[in-house]
TrEMBL record:
Pfam families: AIG1
Gene Ontology molecular function, alphabetical: GTP binding
Domain AIG1-type G per the UniProt entry, residue ranges: 2-150
Protein name, per record: AIG1-type G domain-containing protein
Domain of life from the UniProt record: Eukaryota
Gene3D superfamilies the UniProt entry points to: P-loop containing nucleotide triphosphate hydrolases
Coiled-coil stretches noted in the UniProt entry, renumbered to this chain: 328-376
Family stated for the protein in its record: Belongs to the TRAFAC class TrmE-Era-EngA-EngB-Septin-like GTPase superfamily. AIG1/Toc34/Toc159-like paraseptin GTPase family. IAN subfamily.
CDD domains: Ras_like_GTPase (cd00882)
Keyword vocabulary terms for this entry: Coiled coil, Nucleotide-binding
Protein's organism: Pelobates cultripes
Length: 446
C-alpha cells in the first residue's frame, strides 16, 4: 500500500515500479504509465483508492504477482474533510467482504529534501498508523523520493518521532531511495533481499472495529459530560442566588429566577437509530443493522449484550426512525416550587440554608458523575493501547482539555457555563493527581 502527502512523488514512484516489473529500462524510448500525472503539483492525481492487480507473466522482472494499493494524496486541496474520507476509504478497503485480506508492506512516500516531517506528514502517519494492529509494525517502510546522494535528511525526523516501522539490525528505519528524474527503479543490493513477511489484517480489522465503537461511545459521552457540567454550574449558580437574596426570600417567599436545563426532543430521521426505551436516549445513529433481531451485531454492544453507552441490555433497544436530541433551554422557576420539591422529598420544613446545602450536595454528586464519565472516556482510549500501533492514549486531564477546546470552538448554548465547570473539574483532577503521587506508609498514613 502506497501512502503519501500530495506532491511527494507517489504516482511517479508507482509508474516506476510498473516499468521495473515489466522490464522497461531507463534508456528505452517507450515507458509504461499506470497513473496519469498531468495536473498541478499541489493537486492529488488520485481521488479515491485504486487497487492494481498485476498478474505475473513470463518476462516480468519479479517472479510473482503483485497488488498495489494506491491511496489519494493527503493534504489534498479540498481540505481536511477529504483527508478524513481517504482514511475511511483505507478502512473500507480492509474491512469490506471483497477487500484486502493480507498485506506485505505499508509504504510511506516522503521527499528526501524534507528536513523535518511537516505537520501534514505527521497527521498522515498518525491517521494511518491508527488503523493498523501492532503486528503490522515490521511491515512499514519508507520510500524516499527525489534522492541524489547521501542519507536523506527526513529520516532523522522519522527517528526522532519514533514512528513505528521496520528496522535494520542497527535499529534504523528501513528505507528505499528513488530518483524521480528517472522512470526506472534503482535499489541498493543490500536491500534487495529484505523479507518483511506477509501479514493477515485480522488484528487490523479488530482495531478498526474497536475504533468504530470507541468513536460512538465518545460522542455520546461528550453529550453526557456537557449535560452534567451544565447541571453542576446551574446548581452552584442557584445556591449563590439564594444566599444573596436569602433574607428577602425568607420574608415573603416570592422569588423567581432563571435556570438552564437540558431537555430531550424527538427528531425524525431517514436512517435507523438504535434507541433505548429505558432511558429515552439514542445510543447509535445511523445504525446499519438491518433488523431488530440482529441488533446485537451493532458496535455499541459488548459481548454480554450490555450497551456501551447507557449500560442497559440489548432487549431495551429498538431500531426506530427517530433520534433523541438534547437541547439547552432557559426556564423560569420560583423559590416556592423549589422549596416544595425538597420538602416533599425530605418530609420536613426547609429553610433557604437547608435548601442550599441540598443543592450543594447535588452539585458534588454531578461533579463526581462528570469525573466518572470522563474517566470512562479515558478508559476507552486506553483500551486501544493493547492492539493499536497508534492508540492516541489520553489522560483524564488531557481529555478534559480537549472538551474545553471543543466547547470554545462550537459555542453551543450553555457553553460558557460548561467551560467553567470543566475548568473546575480540571483543577480537581490536578489536585487528585497530586494526592495519588503522595507515598502511603505501611500503616496507611500519608
Amino acid at each position: 500500500m502506497m501512502i503519501g502527502e500530495t506532491g511527494s512523488g507517489k504516482s511517479t514512484l508507482i509508474n516506476a515500479m510498473i516499468n521495473y516489473i515489466m522490464g522497461v529500462k531507463s534508456e528505452d524510448d517507450v515507458k509504461v504509465k499506470l497513473i496519469e500525472e498531468k495536473g498541478k503539483a499541489t493537486a492529488s492525481k488520485t481521488s479515491c483508492i485504486h487497487v492494481y492487480k498485476i498478474n505475473h507473466l513470463e518476462g516480468f522482472h519479479i517472479p510473482y504477482s503483485l497488488t498495489i494499493i494506491d491511496t489519494p494524496g493527503f493534504a489534498h486541496t479540498e481540505g481536511i474533510e477529504k483527508d478524513k474520507e481517504t482514511v475511511q476509504q483505507i478502512k473500507d478497503c480492509f474491512t469490506s467482504p471483497h477487500g484486502i485480506n493480507e498485506i506485505d508492506a505499508v509504504c510511506f512516500v516522503v521527499k528526501a529534501s524534507d528536513e523535518r516531517l511537516t505537520p501534514v506528514q505527521r497527521y498522515v502517519f498518525d491517521a494511518i498508523l491508527g488503523l493498523f494492529g501492532k503486528d503490522i509494525e515490521k511491515n512499514i517502510i519508507f520510500c524516499v523520493t527525489h534522492c541524489d546522494s547521501g542519507i536523506p535528511k527526513v529520516l532523522a525526523s522519522v527517528s526522532e518521532l519514533s514512528v513505528p516501522c521496520a528496522k535494520d539490525i542497527y535499529g534504523n528505519a528501513i528505507y528505499f531511495e528513488f530518483n524521480n528524474s528517472d522512470s526506472s527503479l534503482n535499489t541498493s543490493e543490500a536491500k534487495d533481499n529484505i523479507n518483511l513477511g506477509t501479514k493477515s489484517v485480522i488484528l487490523t480489522r479488530e482495531v478498526l472495529k474497536e475504533r468504530e465503537a470507541l468513536q460512538i461511545v465518545l460522542e455520546c459521552l461528550v453529550q453526557s459530560i456537557e449535560e452534567v457540567m451544565l447541571k453542576t454550574h446551574e446548581k452552584e449558580r442557584i445556591v449563590n442566588i439564594l444566599k444573596q437574596h436569602g433574607a428577602d426570600i425568607e420574608r415573603n417567599g416570592h422569588f423567581e429566577y432563571e435556570e438552564k436545563e437540558t431537555r430531550k426532543k424527538k427528531i425524525e430521521t431517514e436512517t435507523d437509530a438504535t434507541n433505548c426505551s429505558e432511558c429515552d436516549s439514542t445510543c447509535h445513529h445511523p445504525c446499519l443493522v438491518p433488523h431488530d433481531a440482529f441488533i446485537y451485531f451493532c458496535e455499541i454492544f459488548y459481548w454480554n449484550s450490555t450497551c456501551r453507552i447507557c449500560e442497559h441490555n440489548k432487549s431495551s433497544h429498538r431500531r426506530e426512525k427517530f433520534k433523541w436530541q438534547k437541547e439547552v433551554v432557559t426556564v423560569k422557576k420560583s423559590y416556592a416550587e423549589l422549596k416544595q420539591k425538597y420538602e416533599k422529598a425530605q418530609s420536613e420544613k426547609m429553610s433557604v440554608e437547608m435548601i442550599c446545602e441540598k443543592l450543594n450536595s447535588e452539585r458534588q454528586e454531578a461533579e463526581l458523575k462528570g469525573i466518572r464519565l470522563t474517566e470512562k472516556a479515558r478508559d476507552c482510549l486506553q483500551r486501544l493501547r493493547e492492539i493499536a500501533l497508534k492508540p492516541d492514549p489520553l489522560s483524564t486531564a488531557d481529555y478534559i482539555n480537549l472538551l474545553i477546546i471543543n466547547e470554545k470552538s462550537n459555542r453551543k448554548p450553555g457553553f460558557t457555563e460548561r467551560i467553567s465547570s470543566l475548568e473546575n473539574l480540571q483543577n480537581q483532577m490536578t489536585i487528585r493527581k497530586g494526592l495519588e503521587s503522595v507515598p502511603v506508609t505501611a500503616a496507611g498514613e500519608i
